[in-house]
Design goal:
By secondary structure, the chain is an all-alpha fold. Helices cover 85% and strands 0% of the residues. The two termini are 14 Å apart.
């Protein structure tokens, strides 16, 4: 079962990468802001689910970190768009991410105990890899506003740390 879930997580990673890369060269700053904010909200939702379903204390602690950090970055993003008087714009990429995340949460909700823990953390590794790649290769280079670009770069550093933390937690579960 874990192998199947790991493959599913890898598939989600590829799908997330495709969704994040979809038309990214043509994205506007309001669309980029919405994608980045959506990615944070999705990980907050996953963290909340993990907080209630996880059985491993390391998984629960990781989930709390994800919730706290993504909420803080999303608050900064909201403050920035207010300051710039920009309205984040929903787009095909953010819609695809939301759909994929809802499907993944539904899949994870059916699992329990160690099986849930392993699937959740595998998904977190895959998700952070996909988001970090999209930030580096698509969103940051496509952002035209310097403050938005700076916020995305700060987020990337934080999320790279999340990926490393998730990889460490995943390795400890084996």
């Amino acid at each position: 079962m874990f192998v199947r879930l790991t493959i599913a997580a890898a598939a989600l990673s590829l799908a997330s990468s495709a969704a994040l890369a979809q038309g990214a060269a043509k994205l506007t700053d309001p669309q980029i802001a919405h994608i980045a904010y959506t990615a944070g909200v999705l990980d907050i939702n996953a963290a909340k689910q993990a907080d209630s379903k996880a059985s491993n204390k390391e998984i629960k602690a990781f989930a709390k970190d994800m919730e706290r950090d993504h909420e803080a970055v999303n608050k900064q993003a909201l403050d920035l768009v207010k300051k710039l008087n920009v309205t984040p714009e929903d787009n095909d990429t953010s819609k695809a991410l939301s759909k994929q995340a809802a499907d993944k949460l539904a899949e994870l909700s059916k699992l329990k105990g160690a099986e849930y823990d392993k699937a959740y953390i595998a998904n977190e590794v895959a998700y952070h890899k996909a988001v970090n790649s999209a930030l580096e290769t698509q969103l940051i280079p496509s952002a035209s506003n310097a403050e938005l670009k700076g916020l995305l770069q700060t987020g990337l550093k934080i999320f790279q740390g999340h990926q490393q933390h998730a990889e460490h937690v995943a390795a400890s579960l084996k």
